[in-house]
Every structure is written in structure tokens, then in C-alpha cells.
Write a structure and sequence with these properties.
By secondary structure, this protein is of the alpha/beta class. It folds into two domains: 96 residues, Nitrogenase molybdenum iron protein domain (Rossmann fold, 3-Layer(aba) Sandwich), CATH 3.40.50.1980; 141 residues, Nitrogenase molybdenum iron protein domain (Rossmann fold). It contains eleven helices and eleven strands. The strands form two sheets. The protein has a six-stranded mixed β-sheet with strand order 1-6-5-2-3-4. Strands 9-8-7-10-11 form a five-stranded mixed β-sheet, covered by helices on one side. Strand 5, helix 5 and strand 6 form a beta-alpha-beta unit. Helix 6 runs antiparallel to helix 7 and helix 7 packs parallel to helix 11. It is globular. This is Iron-siderophore ABC transporter substrate-binding protein. Belongs to the bacterial solute-binding protein 8 family.
Length: 307
């Protein structure tokens, strides 16, 4: 992420604050954490972050609560969220009454929510991890490191290594499939409104997965440390490669596509030509390994089908 506050998932909205994935570097733990680990590992775990919660599920542990539970199916989708998980509200202003009543033995958080740490530590030990941090660097390796950190932190090291191995094997399979169809360069966006979009680039998760799959990002300019740049759609004309395709990810605001259909600016863009523009199901662009795998699968399937 940049020097700005954590970016909004959608234009003029704060939905992303509930979602930004985990961290990297030294584990930041609160009082009592070592005791919980010695006792056999924490089992009643609350997560303030989608990426951490998703990874926790893949390690075989179901959180007792997460932040912004009701939006999971909108932004994360996979893995499915089991029933019975409590909703803590928005990650930056969680419901401490609910959190306290659940008696967690570990709370997963990120550096973005550092201001809440003293209050969280009064409830339970905390484990803070971060992928999207101002020190920059490619996100995908950080997500791998954070997965290892979380797995170690909850006593599921073998499960963490298995998750990483499955992810790498899946990437290898997708890369082999795509090598047979030789896709063109791709520009990846989320529409904010009919005039603006977030375009994904280095060092973000989408960009890193493109590279891992042997694909080329048509938007060569680097972004902020979340891995995006906010642009006016007219700037898509800066993509000079005639072969390039534009892929937008859901959710798309309801009025965007109807407005674009009437927009001379949009119609003049080479990327708006038939066969050059698609809308695909979304995956969490600020997530971790599960989100990278969902993105890779959706993209690979689409590129094979449209080759």
C-alpha cells in the first residue's frame, strides 16, 4: 500500500479495510501467546483479516469470528465460510463486546490495525502478520512467508507446507496449460465508476501471479505497494500493444457497463473492441495464497476457452 490509508476496495467506500491480507517479517505477538502455543496450540481464533482467515481454514482450523463476515462471499468466495462464525464488524472498529464474549485464545491481526493492539491484547494473545506493507517488494513471496508464519503460530507447520506445495503445483499446471495457447498481454482492472478504474500492476498479487504463470502484464508501470494504480479509463489508450486484452473483475457497479455502452471515449479505446474485453468473477486482489489460486484458475480457464 502507499502512503495513503489502506485503499478502498471500491470507489469512495471503505470495504477494503476489512480485507487486506497478512504480513511478512518477524511475527508480532502479544502477552500470553507462548503459553497458548505450549498448551497445544490455539483453537478459538478470531481473525480481523480475510487473507489470514482464509489461510487458517486451509490449515484445518475454523475461526470463531472474523471481521466483516457478511461480505466474505462478495470478495473472497473461496474457501466457503463455514456456518456459525461470528461477525466482529468492520476490522478497524470491531465489536469488542462480541469479541470478548467469544473468549478467543488467539486474535489474528495485521500492522494496519496496530492502533487496536492494546485493546486486543486485553482480550487475548495476538499474532500480527503482514504482506501489504510500506517496505514494498513482491506480494506473492510475502504471502508464502506469511503462510509459514501463521502455520507456525497455530501449530500447523505441516499443513502450511502442504498448502504452499499445492499452490506451487497448481501454478505449474496453469503455466503449462497457458503455454499451449500463448495468450496476449493482459490489463487487469476493477471499475470504480464509469470513468475510473483500479489497474493492477507490480508489486501486487495479481501481477505476481501473471508472472508466475508466464503471462505479460500489459500495464508496465509500477503501482503502490498494494499493487495498483487508480486511473481514468482514457489512460487505457496508453497500452500500445494491439494484441492486448482488458479483463475487469466483478463486482462491477451496476451503472458502469450501461454507461460505457453509450460512451464515445470507451468505444474509441482499442481494448474495448469485441474480443478484447471481458468481465470475470472476482478474487480477493489483496489476499494470500487461496486468493492467488482462485485468480489463477479463473484466468487460466478463461484464456483457454477464448484462445
Amino acid at each position: 500500500m502507499s502512503a495513503e490509508p489502506m485503499p478502498r476496495m471500491f470507489a469512495r467506500r471503505d470495504a477494503l479495510r476489512l480485507a487486506a491480507g497478512a504480513l511478512v517479517g518477524p511475527l508480532l505477538v502479544g502477552p500470553g501467546y507462548a503459553d497458548a502455543l505450549k498448551a497445544g496450540g490455539p483453537t478459538r481464533i478470531a481473525s480481523l483479516d480475510y487473507g489470514l482467515a482464509s489461510t487458517l481454514l486451509s490449515l484445518g482450523l475454523t475461526p470463531v469470528a472474523i471481521a466483516a463476515r457478511d461480505d466474505w462471499d462478495k470478495w473472497v468466495v473461496e474457501p466457503p465460510l463455514p456456518a456459525g462464525i461470528a461477525d466482529l464488524g468492520a476490522s478497524w472498529e470491531i465489536n469488542f463486546e462480541v469479541l470478548t464474549s467469544l473468549k478467543p485464545d488467539l486474535i489474528l491481526t495485521t500492522p494496519y490495525n496496530a492502533a487496536l493492539t492494546p485493546r486486543l491484547e486485553a482480550v487475548a494473545p495476538t499474532l500480527s502478520l503482514g504482506v501489504y506493507t510500506a517496505d514494498g517488494g513482491d506480494v506473492l513471496p510475502k504471502a508464502v512467508a506469511a503462510t509459514r508464519g501463521l502455520a507456525e503460530g497455530v501449530g500447523r507447520v505441516a499443513e502450511g507446507e502442504a498448502l504452499i506445495a499445492r499452490t506451487e503445483a497448481f501454478f505449474d499446471a496453469c503455466r503449462a496449460r497457458l503455454a499451449r495457447v500463448a495468450p496476449p498481454p493482459l490489463a487487469l482492472i476493477n471499475f470504480l465508476d464509469a470513468r475510473h478504474a483500479r489497474i493492477y500492476t507490480a508489486p501486487g498479487l495479481y501481477h505476481n501471479v501473471l508472472e508466475r504463470l508466464g503471462l505479460t502484464n500489459a500495464w508496465a508501470k509500477p503501482g503502490n505497494f498494494w499493487g495498483f494504480e487508480t486511473i481514468g479509463i482514457e489512460r487505457l489508450a496508453e497500452i500500445g500493444d494491439e494484441r492486448a486484452r482488458l479483463i475487469a473483475f466483478e463486482p462491477v457497479p451496476a451503472d458502469v457497463l450501461p454507461k460505457l455502452a453509450l460512451s464515445p471515449l470507451w468505444q474509441a479505446l482499442p481494448l474495448a473492441r469485441p474480443g478484447h474485453f471481458s468481465v470475470l468473477p472476482g478474487s480477493l486482489m489483496f489476499g494470500m495464497l487461496n486468493d492467488a489460486v482462485r485468480f489463477a484458475r479463473i484466468l487460466t480457464d478463461h484464456l483457454e476457452q477464448t484462445a
